[in-house]
Specification:
The protein is globular and about 70 Å long. The longest helix has 14 residues. Helix 1 packs across helix 7. The strands form eight sheets. A six-stranded mixed sheet has the order 7-8-10-11-13-12. With about 500 residues, the protein is an alpha/beta fold. The relative contact order is 0.12.
Length: about 500
């Protein structure tokens, strides 16, 4: 018999249905597919980023419909939630509508609304059927202030999480609670296994909270890194993936020991009539044409696209330059890419750019650009006959074609017969060689801006601006604003020093 059971979700981003929106197959995901059997000693808790980030939430916002998540959470018996940074993306009225429709109290100690629109409190005490007094509080990263549009935070203060958390813990101690649970939409700044520093920016402060405060259980979100049975500074720590692909079950034994496990999702068998109607409306929305291209943009094998260039990547970069006003842009392609037809639908866009990336504009010098391009050039390996293949660095321990970047705004060349690290043979902008000390603004996605993909030096680059609209939305907006989209006939990249294998061996497998 357990003294406490907690079901924890986070970063579900409005993924209610068992679909990734890339194809029509049923996927093991979606909030509607989860099951949380409850009794008087069970709590269901969410860690934020619940109402923005999927085609469904985009559809509801565009069509003037309420956020669709609260009715589902109510039916599933959620007890408490906190706020995530993306919950602010559609403005305070959208967020307020969600919170007002939600039966579960929202706990976020470092958020205050001077206009009293948001139903948010700092902490709560929940007494279980067995008498256990559980103190709970929530926090969200204060980097919301850096990312969010000012109009979406009008009247809202998002303060430093640590002082707010300290105040909440003190209040809970006064209530003589038996244990303290923190719901932190901030992420871990240190690796719980090795202790190595993952982030020094201040965006992630979950480990700091564990070190500074007597927290028994940390329910963490924001990073999308699944985590079970971890500890930091004596605190039991868990975290989920994103898009409702898993959840965490935490138990507290009679002996006072926490145990946690990541739980897979089984696709939902039935949905309500209201959800069925919502799904039907969404399908009509996804099939809606949004723009026209001068020609279809079709994928090829990843190796061929990396070698010859990609029309799809050129289009993404064109959108990024339009949205950012930067000098240069770099983008990558997902492991699976549908491509865009001449008449583009909403579904086409989502299936071709499936990530929930936002954009960051950084200041970069020529030396760092060359380092980044040398990393891209490591994508290629060749055998003794000069036939190219994708290097193991991009295939093991998992396929990571999304770490190969395509650039726009410069011209560059690789000679892949040369040793890795010395393959960039041309690097120019407007016909002039780029010197190490030349500086430019470069637009990239927020994932790459963290240095992910072995681009560590990107994490130290100064941020010029951040664009918190997801890339898929930017693509849709671009297509709506341009009657017919044309792309340059020539790619920015030229590769020499090797040759592709026979066509039949590199057909696109996505």
């Amino acid at each position: 018999m357990n003294r406490l059971t907690i079901y924890f979700t986070s970063d579900t981003h409005g993924y209610l249905f068992p679909t990734n929106f890339i194809d029509s197959t049923i996927q093991p995901m979606g909030l509607l597919s989860m099951r949380f059997p409850k009794d008087g000693n069970t709590l269901v808790i969410d860690g934020g980023d619940a109402i923005q980030g999927s085609p469904l939430t985009y559809y509801c916002h565009e069509e003037g419909l309420p956020a669709p998540v609260a009715p589902v959470m109510n039916r599933m018996g959620y007890d408490y939630v906190t706020l995530g940074n993306h919950d602010f993306n559609y403005g305070p009225e959208w967020l307020a509508g969600h919170l007002n429709a939600l039966h579960a109290p929202c706990l976020c100690a470092n958020v205050e609304d001077s206009q009293d629109r948001l139903a948010v409190r700092p902490w709560a005490v929940h007494t279980l059927e067995n008498g256990l007094k559980v103190g709970l509080f929530g926090v969200v990263t204060d980097w919301v202030n850096r990312w969010e549009r000012p109009e979406n935070l009008k009247g809202i203060t998002v303060s430093d999480p640590l002082p707010a958390a300290r105040k909440a813990v003190a209040a809970l101690k006064e209530q003589q609670v038996d244990l303290i649970v923190c719901i932190s939409h901030s992420g871990l700044e240190k690796d719980p296994d090795t202790g190595s520093v993952l982030s020094e920016t201040g965006e992630h402060v979950t480990c700091l909270l564990c070190e500074q405060l007597p927290i028994d259980l940390m329910l963490a979100g924001h990073q999308h890194v699944p985590m079970e049975n971890k500890t930091w500074a004596g605190t039991h720590v868990v975290q989920t993936s994103c898009n409702a692909t898993d959840y965490v079950r935490v138990t507290l034994s009679e002996e006072g020991v926490f145990h946690s496990e990541l739980c897979p999702v089984t696709p939902a068998e039935t949905i309500s009539a209201g959800e069925d109607a919502l799904w039907a409306g969404l399908q009509r929305f996804l099939a809606r044409p949004v723009g026209r291209l001068a020609r279809p943009l079709r994928p090829a094998a990843h190796l061929r696209m990396a070698y010859e260039g990609s029309d799809i990547a050129d289009f993404f970069n064109q959108v990024m330059l339009w949205a950012s006003g930067a000098d240069l842009s770099c983008t990558a392609l997902a492991n699976q890419v549908k491509g865009l037809e001449e008449v583009v639908t909403v579904q086409d866009v989502i299936a071709t750019y499936p990530y929930s990336n936002t954009l960051v504009v950084v200041s970069v010098d020529g030396k760092t650009l060359r380092l980044a391009l040398e990393q891209c050039a490591k994508y290629f390996e060749q055998d003794e006959a000069g036939v190219l293949r994708v290097s193991d660095e991009y295939l093991k321990p998992k396929q990571a074609h999304y770490n190969y970047d395509y650039y726009t705004g410069l011209t560059y060349a690789f000679d892949v017969s040369r040793p890795a690290g010395s393959r960039v043979t041309k690097l120019e902008r407007n016909g002039r060689p780029i010197a190490d000390n030349d500086t430019f603004t470069l637009c990239m996605n927020n994932y790459r801006a963290t240095g992910a993909g072995n681009y560590d030096y990107f994490a130290a680059l100064p941020h010029v601006r951040e664009i918190q609209t997801e890339m898929s939305e930017l693509i849709l907006n671009y297509l709506r604003e341009h009657t017919e989209v044309r792309l340059p006939e020539k790619h920015a990249l030229a590769v020499t020093g090797g040759r592709l294998p026979e066509e039949e061996s590199v057909k696109f497998s996505g």
